[in-house]
Amino acid sequence: GRPVDPSFPLFHSISNVICAVVFGYHFSDEDKTFHELIHATEKIFRFAGSFVHQMYEILPWLLCRLPGPHKKVLACYDALSSFARKEIRRHVERGIPAEPQDFIDFYLAEIEKEAKPKCDEENLVYVINDLFLGGSETSSTTLYWGLLYMVVHPDIQAKVQKELDAVLGPSQLICYEDRRKLPYTNAVVHEIQRFSNIVFVGVPRLCVRNTTLLGFPVKKGTIVIPNIASVLYDPEQWETPRQFNPGHFLDKEGNFIPREAFLPFSAGHRVCLGEHLARTELFIFFASLLRAFTFRLPEGVTKINTEPVFGGTLQPHPYRVCAIPR
């Protein structure tokens, strides 16, 4: 029940899911290497979106020769790459089992199948970095926002807990399929994603042929950036777009309803490749946390900052909560 900043426990737990998928094992809380990976990841995301980062994107040939914070971030990325190479080497030396156990096993097995493979071990390093960076920061930040919204809206938190208690047995493990029996909890998770909107725009795309979009000509070679925020806060799509309202995903009978304008994973054929894993993680982690604890502001704290901090993702200002066992 003591005040604690939940950011590290959340990041640790989510990152370990990615580690299990990619490397085939978990890290312990005290593991020095894991702490270094988390520190490197946090530094990279804090740097992303900064003025120096924008300048580096425009003038990489110049800034790579100059001192500055980008040098430390590049060193962090090199540390992630070095760890990925060690893991690949460990898998190669161990040999690929008949039944691959993790992502690296599957990737190496595909390389061996092809006489002239399109991808190699060096490409695998960058894929692993993408999975680790993209799969840990985004989900943990969304959950970080989720707990913040629960202490700001204790009535919503209580309603989620009431549904969990009524539907699930005291010792029953929560699985992703349970979302069908927990419409309100599912709606709250979706509203956390919509309202926090941790990524304002999607990954840039390149137009491959001349086309027309809503009457506007778009030439081949044009860079197109999905404006996710404009959809998630569109007043024509949401009853109260600037308010946290789980009712956005419920009908009059309290049943969960999917919304076409719900696009936190971007749009088009190349949406976030980890969408299914992220949806599963968010639901199970959020429901499990609220089933086990009630989250409250520390004694004497009456206000909490809900404005975002800009970076690689939109994050909450650091905060502390009391997790009261139920």
UniProtKB/TrEMBL annotation:
Required co-factors: heme
Gene3D superfamilies, per the entry: Cytochrome P450 (1.10.630.10)
Record-level Gene Ontology MF annotations: heme binding; iron ion binding; oxidoreductase activity, acting on paired donors, with incorporation or reduction of molecular oxygen, reduced flavin or flavoprotein as one donor, and incorporation of one atom of oxygen
UniProt keyword list: Heme, Iron, Metal-binding, Monooxygenase, Oxidoreductase
Annotated GO CC locations: cytoplasm
A biological process term (GO) from this entry: organic acid metabolic process
UniProt xrefs under SUPFAM superfamilies: Cytochrome P450
Binding locations of heme: C272
Keyword GTP-binding in annotation: no
Family: Belongs to the cytochrome P450 family.
Name of the featured protein: CP2J2 protein
Gene transcribed to yield this protein: Cyp2j2_1
